[in-house]
Each structure stands twice: as C-alpha cells, then as structure tokens.
Amino acid sequence: MKSMIFRLSRIARLGCGLLLGLTVLSGNAADFPTPREGHWVARDFRFQNGEVLPELRLAYTTVGDPNGEPVLILHGTTGSAGSLLTPDFAGELFGPGQPLDAAKHFIILPDAIGTGASSKPSDGLRTAFPHYNYDDMVTAQYRLLTEHLGVRHLRLVLGNSMGGMQTWIWAQKYPGFMDAAVPMASLPTEMSGRNWMMRRLIIDSIRSDPAWKNGQYTEQPPSLRLASVFFAIGTNGGDQGLYKLAPSREKADAVLDQRLKAPFRGDANDHLYQWEASRDYNPSAGLERIEAALLAINSADDERNPPALGVLEREIRRVKNGRALLIPGQPDTFGHGTVARARFWKQEFEAWLRAVPSNAR
Predict the structure, then answer these.
(1) Which is nearest to 58 in space by CA: 76, 77, 42, 74?
(2) How do residues 325-347 score in pLDDT, each as one tens digit?
(3) In the chain, what are the helix, strand and coil shares in percent, each to the nearest 5?
(4) Of the candidates 296, 300, 295, 297, the residue with the CA atom closest to the CA atom of residue 333
(5) C-alpha distance across the termini of the chain, in Å
(6) For residues 341 and 22, is the Cβ–Cβ distance under 8 A?
(7) pTM of the complete model
(8) Alpha-carbon distances of 221 from 71, 225, 260, rounded to whole Å
(9) pLDDT at residue 29, rounded to an integer
(10) 272: Cβ–Cβ under 8 A, 6 or more apart, which residues?
(11) Cα–Cα distance between 297 and 291 in angstroms, integer?
C-alpha cells in the first residue's frame, strides 16, 4: 500500500477506500475501568552492553478485560504508566465507545526500565546500575508480555515521544507480533540535531554540578530542576502555545517562576540514565522490515521533531504499509506535547485502526 503523509487541515484518503474529513473534534473525556497495577521480575536480564542484572523488576498497569484485544501503550522520557492515565489521554481513548474501549481491549502500560516503579538507579545501585538503551527497554517489554502476561499477539503498539521511538523499534524487532503500530512525537532516524544537543546539555549540566558528587549525592543537585525546566521550555509547548500562555515579559516570568517552584520529585541519576538511553537510537536501517500497518502521528510545531527537516516524509515511504498524520500548529496545540492530548488525533486514528485487518491467531 502506497505510503503518504496527510494533514488535519484537508481531506485525505486512507486504506480500504475510506474517505475522512480531517477535522479536530474535542468531544468529552469518558470514564474508564479502574487501572490495576502489577509487577514481575525478569531473571538474569542481559543488557545490550553485556551487563547482567540478576533481577530486573518491571512494573506495569493494565486497564480493561484480560480477554480483550491486547494493546501496548508506551510512555515518554521521565514518565511512567501513570503519566498516560490522564483525562486528556486515557479519558479520550479508553472509555465506552472510544477508540480503545477497555470493554473490548486489554490495555497494558509498562513502566520502562529506569522509570516509575520498575528497576532504576535510585533503588540503590546508583551509577552501578547497567547503562540501558531503548533496545533494552523494548526487550524487557517483550519479555513482560510473553513470559508473564501470556500475550502472543498485539492488536496495537502505540507510544508517545520515547515511547514513540520504542514503537519504531518494536515494529521492526518483532514484525509479526502486532497488527498496528502508532509511533507518536518521534522520527525513525538517529538521535541528532537539536534533539540530541538539548539532551546532552541536560546530561552535562547535572554531571558538572559539584553537588552531583559522581552520583553519590545525598540531596538532589540543584542543576536537575533548572536543567529539566530549561529542557521542557526549549523542546515543548509550541511557539503559538507558549506565546498564548506568555504574551508579555511579565507573564513569561510568572510562568517560569511557577515551573521553577513547582514540586519536583525527579532523581538525578534516574534522569541521566533516561536521557542517555537515547544515545544510540536509530531505527532507520530496519524500516523495510516493518510488517504492521503503521501510522506515525506528529505535530507541525514539534520542537524536537520539526517537520521542516523532511525526515518523516522521506522515511515513511520505506514502510510498506505506512502513513503519517501531521497535526497543524495552532494556539491550542502544545508542540512536542500535542499528541498527549488525544482529542487532536483520535478520530483519524480510530478510522485508520478500524481498517487494519486483525492477524491474531
């Protein structure tokens, strides 16, 4: 099936002859079943760098009927399963009659290695914790699904930001394991440009802080909060969105002061490992191996993955059943954070997914 990019500002044809008017309908967020938390220990987990952890704890959350169609949802950097259980995301997708209705789907949201309640440096190993990457995270997710939850086939893998990059890896590493893949706020190319430069800056700012003490600190180094706020403003929010929020210096100062004073519970070593995990991300070489129907969803005002680079438009042509949806930037979008608000894309996503055949055995 021919690859293409389509935009919300016009009408576009999807697979199976379906014609959609691509307009954003906000709708009302719905309730969904109470999430259930669980954990599993992967024994003798071998990382790509050769290190082995005798016990790797993997935390996860599920929503819906275990007998429903399995769906894997992957979170972003410094997030966790809980960061997706919001009215703007889960409330738009998991409720009755919504695209991933939990009465019909078994929704699995793992905490990636190094995040949430999964094993991470701050549990005690500090800088002796193995230096993982995105491939390690995906391998751990696969083991969680197959060895613990008994999942043999997924209807869908969907991820946002870091989770979007992991979705690109999933689609080529386990090509027959899913019907559909939706990488969001990500590009199928190596970590580079401003995206990596900003990550390097947050990493170096923490490591150069004397209070970091080579990872053996007893109090969080102050650079962590400042670097995190700096990174978020530099790579998230959208030009129009931030201008709408702060149209004057006084309002900009107020927004910045609020963010700098907000509660911050991050751990410096955990954050360092999470940002560094992207260091060797590069799924480009395997795009032709992808068998699943794939819909890449990005926003036009994404600061980390700017469409002006032409990367997605070029690379999506290599995915035999690939499509790309570009959400136009506007005062109500949030740049890199836009896709975390499912109202901007759920209508088009639902129609697309409905047309994807099920290959479950």
Answers:
(1) 42
(2) 999 999 999 999 999 999 999 99
(3) 40, 20, 40
(4) 300
(5) 23
(6) no
(7) 0.91
(8) 38, 8, 14
(9) 62
(10) 121, 203, 206, 207, 215
(11) 18
